[in-house]
Amino acid sequence: MSLITSPESILDITVAAMQSTEDQRLKSLIVSLTKHLHQFVLENQLTELEFERALQFIVGIGQATGANTNEVVLAADILGVSSLVSTINNLDLDGGSYAALLGPFWRKNAPLCAWGENISRTDLGGQAMEVRGRIMDEFKRPVAGAIVDVWHSSPVGFYENQDEHQEDMNLRGRFQTNADGEFFFTSIRPAGYPVPTNGPCGELLRAQKRHPNRPAHIHFMISKPGYKVLITQVFDSTDQNLESDPVFGVSKQLVGEYLTDAATGICKLNHSFLLQAGEMVFPAPPIP
Ligand SMILES: [Fe+2]
Question: What is the CATH class of 71-274?
Answer without folding.
Answer: mainly beta
